[in-house]
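Let us work through a complete example step by step.
Step 1: write down the sequence.
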Amino acid sequence: MRRPAELRAGGKAFVERLDDRYGDRPGVSLARDVLALDKATAGGELAAALAYRLFLWFLPFVLVLVAGLGAYAEIHNESPKDVAARLGLAGLVVQSVVAAAKSDARWYALAIGIPVLLYVTRNLLRTVVAIHRLVWELPRRRSDIAPGRVLVFLLFMIAFIVVGPASSSAKDWTDWWWVVVVPGIVLARGGLWLALSYRLPNRATRWTDLLPGAAIVGVGIAVVNLFTIYAVAAIAASREDSYGALGTAAAVLFSLWLTSRVIVLSAVANTALWRRSRGSRPSA
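Step 2: predict the structure and record it as tokens.
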């Protein structure tokens, strides 16, 4: 059995051979620059920090969502199931909405959940801003997490999440709904991220400089969602008897880490391309 040091040496030699043969090609050179910058900025660690913030954000968000839909169903005399289904929600979320519609505690949940949601949204925005500031090598500014920006970021998060479930209603009018829905979700989320990234710390002089990162987020999040649905969720369900809630939490965290990795990579790719356009390249 080969030792780890030998495996690392063999892998390094293989990469060097590939670099000697294909290193002068633009695509390979760009990929090398992106990987070098990602390594220099500790992209994996930044993604882990962002995944932790996302996990904390989703807890009050789901609380407010469930309680809010339950209250909405009661006020408008609608079936909680119909309200949830109209948004493309299913499973445990629908059951929670039905329970919230029957419970008097939903108003207390909203009273507690909304302030907590605003607080964790501010913390999440601070983390996203810090990641972009580190990648773009920009100084800290207090205005980046002003109250107005926090509210805009909260609206962005809600829109980014709702795009997927809301678009799934297309399956009711055609069997080929996914042909329209999947590209539509990719374009919608890419456009949302482009609008947000333009407001985040960056050195870009034109909005088109941020298009590569928006494309990475649009396509990357779609791939992560598919991987989560057909692989991560299936594995978690098959191991539910063995690991229970711990296995579910691990699956959620892993999915959030993959999502965070895509977000960090988008900032790194934008920065690497911007540097290359000005003749500057990251050190290996």
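Step 3: interpret the result. The chain is about 80% helix and 0% strand.
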